[in-house]
């Protein structure tokens, strides 16, 4: 046994590892998974989290929003304030995993892994609650509602003022198709994308399919819009800039011999810089306007700017990588590519610097797939890294 910094370690790692409630970690994850709740309706989940936190020593509980919970652990010594965040909401997706603990709630499932995030942060809180005398500063455990649905639960918590004293924010997300238990260090700067969306209704003029000259065909117009929008990334966005324009919804018509009176499109847009975000939005609006007018149609467009990009602070990111290596070994830590997904964790940067990491959970389908599942053996490494990051930040 030897001393490393302020921590006593042995051959199996820091002494505090024995305090990780390994069995409870899995039990908590499965209970939350089985009782999945969608954004802004996480009543049972937040009550469950609160009840578990009450069973730990030294943790004060706040409810900054209706279905969010924040646990606060004050160390025995003065110091900085650090926060780790987990999201709790599920998706409006019917589960197709076949698990014994599959969601009991129809058309709702944890297809993104937020059940694991919540369970890991509970285990982190349980571990650190037994280390009050060794902690220098204050730890906030943020169990956040509504990450999946804009405007996002982070905004509610920030608005409450509950986190105004936090000096740094950390978060972690599970990702499939990386080895179970491997920690991904996302890039400095933009670690995720900005997320925007639009809903468009092209309004034409209905007619009989055999008399197209008497109508204005919204399907033809909408199809041309779809094709034109594909030129934005290839012909307007500077090479090397990341941008995605995806039309995920196209609905029109009810009969093969009827020209519909309207067509509906829905899209998601991902960018990483403010300049490209504005460029893409301007081009989308211009193309839609000019194409519909050219055909004599009209339209209704609802364009929404959603989450900004997560911006990893370089100094904190370097510290987090060192913490991860210390906690789980260099062979289990890798430099991960930027996420093309988006995250309302990005809003916490309004208060203090932030860092977001990923946790590999083994091979499988992507997040948001009805069959999404994870290797539960990965979760203990997630907890180890969370605890180590918090301790290292406070001991800087």
UniProtKB/TrEMBL annotation:
Cofactor: Mn(2+)
Cofactor: record remark: The Mn(2+) ion enhances activity.
One record GO biological process: diaminopimelate biosynthetic process
Gene Ontology molecular function terms on file: metal ion binding; N-acetyldiaminopimelate deacetylase activity
Peptidase M20 dimerisation domain residues: 197-294
InterPro entries: Amidohydrolase, Bact_exopeptidase_dim_dom, Peptidase_M20, Peptidase_M20_dimer
Pfam families: M20_dimer, Peptidase_M20
Keywords assigned by UniProt, alphabetized: Hydrolase, Manganese, Metal-binding
Binding-site list for Mn(2+) 2: 112, 114, 148, 368
Binding site for Mn(2+) 1: 173
Gene3D superfamilies: 3.30.70.360, Zn peptidases (3.40.630.10)
Domain of life of the native organism: Bacteria
UniProt xrefs under PANTHER family: METALLOPEPTIDASE, PUTATIVE (AFU_ORTHOLOGUE AFUA_6G09600)-RELATED (PTHR11014:SF63), PEPTIDASE M20 FAMILY MEMBER (PTHR11014)
Database matches in NCBIfam families: amidohydrolases
Name used for this protein in its record: Peptidase M20
UniProt source species: Flavisolibacter tropicus
């Amino acid at each position: 046994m030897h001393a490393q910094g302020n921590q006593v370690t042995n051959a199996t790692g820091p002494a505090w590892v024995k305090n990780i409630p390994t069995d409870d970690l899995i039990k908590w994850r499965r209970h939350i998974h089985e009782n999945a709740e969608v954004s802004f309706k996480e009543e049972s989940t937040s009550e469950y989290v609160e009840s578990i936190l009450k069973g730990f020593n030294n943790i004060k509980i706040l409810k900054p929003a209706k279905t969010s919970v924040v646990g606060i652990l004050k160390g025995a010594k003065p110091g900085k304030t650090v926060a780790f965040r987990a999201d709790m909401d599920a998706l409006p997706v019917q589960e197709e995993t076949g698990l014994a603990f599959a969601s009991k709630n129809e058309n709702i499932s944890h297809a993104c892994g937020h059940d694991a995030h919540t369970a890991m942060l509970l285990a982190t809180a349980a571990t650190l609650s037994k280390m009050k005398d060794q902690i220098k500063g204050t730890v906030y455990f943020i169990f956040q509602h509504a990450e999946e649905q804009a405007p996002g639960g982070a905004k509610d918590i920030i608005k409450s003022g509950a986190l105004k004293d936090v000096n740094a924010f950390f978060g972690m997300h599970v990702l499939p198709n990386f080895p179970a238990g491997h920690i991904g260090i996302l890039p400095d700067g933009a670690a995720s994308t900005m997320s925007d969306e639009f809903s468009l209704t092209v309004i034409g003029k209905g007619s009989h399919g055999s008399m197209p000259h008497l109508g204005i065909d919204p399907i033809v117009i909408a199809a041309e819009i779809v094709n034109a929008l594909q030129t934005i990334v290839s012909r307007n966005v500077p090479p090397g800039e990341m941008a995605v324009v995806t039309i995920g919804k196209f609905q029109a018509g009810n009969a093969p011999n009827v020209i519909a009176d309207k067509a509906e499109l829905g899209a998601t847009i991902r960018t990483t810089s403010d300049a490209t975000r504005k460029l893409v939005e301007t081009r989308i609006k211009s193309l839609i306007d000019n194409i519909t007018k050219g055909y004599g149609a009209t339209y209704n467009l609802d364009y929404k700017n959603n989450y900004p990009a997560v911006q990893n602070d370089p100094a904190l990111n370097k510290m987090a990588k060192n913490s991860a290596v210390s906690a789980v070994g260099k062979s289990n830590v890798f430099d991960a590519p930027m996420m093309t997904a988006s995250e309302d964790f990005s809003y916490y940067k309004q208060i203090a610097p932030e860092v977001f990491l990923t946790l590999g959970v083994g091979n499988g389908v992507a997040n948001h797939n009805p069959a999404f599942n994870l290797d539960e053996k990965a979760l203990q490494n997630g907890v180890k890294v969370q605890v180590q990051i918090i301790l290292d930040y406070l001991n800087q």
